[in-house]
């Protein structure tokens, strides 16, 4: 089990890192929605490219309301009076019609702060998961009509054009909407007026609610979202709508993608602000993108641990093992010198003497010198006297006379010695005995 410990540690670090990449990254669901077909991130990029000053919301930043001219806010909730449950199955996820929970109080506060372009929802999470716009991925009429009532569009009713592209031609540009969604012209509330419509659908309303600013309702989000900008070529019309709402105001457009209220009002920017620090401030170091960095750190630590502990082996001990390594290195160096000098006999003598010493240590422990070798042969004789005599005679002969033997005779006796040694080790197994022998 000890040998598997480094592997288990490495595997745990890598798995933890991979989980961090996918699980922790999944915690940033808002960013995933913003970059999905139903998100509005493409509108910010296109607006910046066309010279519009678009400021995207960020959960850690609170822009000053005095610096903003217009808010663009998309609703991803069909019931502002309750919190939607988490989907329990893949089917529940597919038909989910609330991607970001929004409270009615926060929604009304957003309208009170700034002139706002409100983008209604249209698609379920099924469009995000599959990338397919179809009738089954549309939010149901009942849920949409409930939302219209909650945002003070009493009496308004959702109407859809069906599974085809509805083409709209305006002075600012053309647009194409698949499964176009609007409000029936006959159900437009009295506090609203239509600013963009077809014969059967009202697509843009300008409304006055109980707040100091005008509010525009975009009934089909494909006019502004990533899906519409990419598949319907609606970019020109989307920018024309925003420019018309801005008028001559040169301040920024605030692309608000958060269900929280992030804006702030400051009369004097030079005024000193006091910050209250808390333990919750540490949580920002585990949000995106820091969570990805943490995950990568675990993976790197795992690889480094593997490289140090597994690839190059465990750390060698300094005790007996260190002395054995030093002795083996000395023998190898001496053998090489003898081989280079042509003195093969002396090299064989050292080789046999070293092997006998190793056999003695394996059997009795610490090196006992000549006495230990005699004790070893005596112990071997108890098991096989003939083998013990022949092995001892051959070994002694090589130790004493190897330097004087002709090369052919030296090779023959060395081969015979190796054969006997193999019998000693393989036939008799372990030679270790207890201390009372």
Q: What is shown here, in short?
A:
By secondary structure, this protein is α/β, with parallel strands linked by helices. The protein has helices spanning 5-26, 29-34, 41-49, 90-94, 104-113, 125-130, 141-150, 226-231, 235-246, 290-311, 320-341, 344-364, 369-383, 385-401, 407-428, and strands at residues 54-56, 68-74, 116-119, 158-160, 165-170, 173-178, 181-183, 192-197, 202-208, 214-218, 252-256.
Description of the structure:
The chain is an alpha/beta fold and 437 residues long. The chain folds into 2 domains: 234 residues, no CATH class; 109 residues, no CATH class. Helix content is 47%, strand content 13%. It is built from 15 helices and 11 strands. The strands form 3 sheets. Strands 1-11-2-3-10-9-8 form a 7-stranded mixed β-sheet, with helices on one face. A hairpin with a 2-residue loop joins β5 and β6. α13 runs antiparallel to α14. The longest helix is centred in the first third of the chain and has 22 residues. The radius of gyration is 42 Å and the shape is rod-shaped. The C terminus is likely disordered.
